[in-house]
Amino acid sequence: MTDADRKKYVYIVYSSKHSDFVSELISQLKQRGYYVKGRDCKSEISGDAGEKSGCLIAVISKDNINSEVLRDEIDKAKNTYVPLVPVYAEKVSVPFKLTALAQCRTALNLYAYSDHGLFYKKLFSLKPVADAKPDTDSAVGNDKHDEELNTKIKIEPAKTEETAESVETDTKETNCDNNDKQRGIKHEEAGYIRFSDGMYKGETKNGVPDGEGEYYYSDSSTYKGGFKLGKYDGEGEWTSKDGNKYKGSFRDNEFNGFGEYTYADSSIYKGEFKNGKRNGKGISTSVDGDVYDGEFKDGFRHGFGTYTFADGSCYTGQFAYGERNGTGKYINSDGDEYEGEFSNGEFHGSGVFSRLDGAYYCGEFKNGKRDGIGVFVKSDGTRFEGRFADGEINGYGELSYPNGRRIEGYFENGEFVSESNPTENKEKEHKKSLKSLFKKK
Q1: How many angstroms separate the CA atoms of 297 and 273, rounded?
Q2: Does the chain have fewer CB atoms within 10 Å around its N or its C terminus?
């Protein structure tokens, strides 16, 4: 058999885990008149069929991504200029040692096709596969080669157990042709490197992005800026598939340093980041017009800051994990003011609430309401000093009027009840009735 004849073969390297698909692929190739040879990654048999074939189809899975056989066949194809078509049977993370695989622009994601008919339509439209088809539709010699292929490919049940070392990434279907057309990128344009999740153009080192570059992901997210050993590093601009944008400093693939994050709804944060989250000092402006200027921790308002609401209300004080916690001062849109302790966004603890008309309450609060011992003074000078519960005068206290009149005793829901404890009076009456009852007996 001449080398010219050999170049009409499609060579397949695969894992027995996906033997059902490989059998289907062989059948589809044969029906279209292709000669087919193949090698299981677990096979120790090696030869020169791959390097003398017209096209190498590498069926990639977690089971063989780190296989020496897979790397050997891909290296042979690269060294002998045999076109490579990677077919990802499942989501995998491509190791650095397979740079030829990562850079290949003809990759197909089998797992993204619910209809295999569409997959084969795409596969047979690829130039490397089309060029490997024999000039004649006759299947001369196919029976012999099929027999040879079948002796080497032993169909085994697919393995369902996955090893603990399996690493799965969030790669999605890479419809590179459409994305490239939208961005005006041609496959043959110099400088673009194809990875399993998108395309990169820029400086590289050892086959990975390093220096300044641009990365276009298949899900439409983008990054432009500095890279170091394949990770975002330095100044850059990132845009998510949902329209969120970040412009600023990166380190180790995370937002780190000073930057500006603009959300899809037009809310903006400008300030310090650490490990991908808002950490340090910054200013956050919501789409409703609320503004927070202060400290952040792990993405939350945390520490000292000022929160100004769109209606003019304002709080200045301490925050803990997004809520007003600690001491602070709050002024509402009507001009009423509270200064004291907060818990989970509510007045809680000791504080002073002052109204614009001059009335004020100084004392204890619980869950946003007057609760405990306190002093309440109305704008006309009426004064109550005593116990409060659930926002109302409840319990013992003294009520003083501007004309000098004074009432001392027990109150319920703001109303005077008696000079003595009504509960104690009821207990005394109950004891009296019991004594009289026993006397009658």
Answers
A1: 9
A2: C
